[in-house]
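Sample pair:
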Amino acid sequence: YILQLLEGVTSDTYKVRLKDSSELINYSYKVAGTVGIIMCNILEAKNNTAYNFAVDLGIAFQLTNIARDITSDAKLGRIYIPKSWLKIEPDQVLNISKKNKIKVNVATKKLLDLADLYYSSAILGLRFLPHRSRISVLIALSVYRKIGIKIKNNNYDSLDRRQTVSFGEKLYIAFSMIIIYPFYNIIHNNNYKHNRKLHTLLKKSIL
């Protein structure tokens, strides 16, 4: 998994232009899903089923990153939105026309909708982590998901302003999750199976 992570990070040193959804998911797996698996081992998750859900959390994080950083990535000559979704180049992002901006916003919505599928799966997988780790991962998930919510509330426009979560918002989310957490197992006590469809595009075996 460390080698897969290095492979993903190394790919960022070249010009990046992902072709389709498969390349998007595989890139997100390499640079972030692998980190989820490594964290499972650090947190001493005993059930390997946790790996699948950890990968989903990593992919969701990375999809959120891509949606947030479209402009800063374009400045580096990179576009992580698949070409099959968005047929414009980095210089067109930096000198965006009204027509192209609408296209980017539509693609951003698609990114965040996809991220939500992986976030929803990752939440179900918290049960496979040791109790001492669940609340911290839940808070991290919720804080990062908030970035996507803020982009959504801005009509999926992240080109002019890089969305962040303030310290006050992080505190509010943390306290909210602490209050909700005792009810977690009651709310999510019937679904223990991972949705295999989320990993159909992956070229690497997780387990």
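The chain has a mean pLDDT of 92.
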